[in-house]
Amino acid sequence: MKISTIALAAAALGIGASAGAQGPEVAAALEFNHFMVAISVNDIEKETDWFVDSLGFTVAKDAVLRDGAVHFRWLTNGNERIELIKTVDSQPGPARPAPPGHAAIRGITQVTLETPDIEATRAALAAKGVTPALDITEVAPLGIKVMYLLDPEGNAVEIAQKVSG
User: Fold this and answer.
1) Could you report the average pLDDT of every consecutive run of 10 residues in the chain (165 residues)?
2) CA distances in angstroms from 80 to 15, 42, 60, 77, listed in the order given
3) What is the dihedral of CA 52, 137, 108, 62, to 10 degrees?
4) Integer Cα distance of 33 and 36 in angstroms
5) On the CB side of 103, how many CA atoms lie within 13 Å of its CA?
């Protein structure tokens, strides 16, 4: 069998075809917008207070399900939404080192929030008594400056500013 015949057979079967190559209806169905990031927490009140007091989030929704076994709280700031989830009998995850070492443990490593002026953000956080776990650092290959905060349960929150491209 000639290579062109194999390629045609593979194309007919959809083998090796990307979503974009499958037609516009598939590509459109796989186009997403940011909705939220969810964080499972032990103390939903302490976490809420930190996000509200330190980062200016507001409580947008609060729901308790399954006779109190699950508590959801949506926090918003601009177009960012964080969902805090408190479930009965939740277990702590693995201990993570402070940033940047936190990325050495596989899985979702942080929530990242974008700011247009990281220096002004750091000054505003300092005025609220918030000290970065990792101060402003330029990541030139990515065209960003970042700093990291840790919420009360040790979850990393990255603040990023685009500096090029």
Assistant:
1) 44 49 78 91 98 98 95 97 96 91 91 96 97 96 97 96 85
2) 38, 22, 11, 5
3) 10
4) 10
5) 7
Per-domain residue ranges of the chain: 19-92, 95-165
How far is 57 from 42, CA to CA, in rounded Å?
Answer: 19
Residue type, 145: K
In 3D, which of 81, 84, 85, 83 has the Cα closest to residue 33? Answer: 81
- H or E segment to which residue 6 belongs: helix 3-13
Terminal alpha carbon distance of the chain: 47
Is 19-92 CATH 3.90.226.10? no
Q: Are strands 144-150 and 80-87 parallel, antiparallel or unpaired?
A: unpaired
Q: Which class is 95-165 in CATH?
A: alpha beta
For the entire predicted model, the pTM comes to: 0.81
The C-alpha atoms of residue 104 and residue 157 are separated, in whole angstroms, by 16
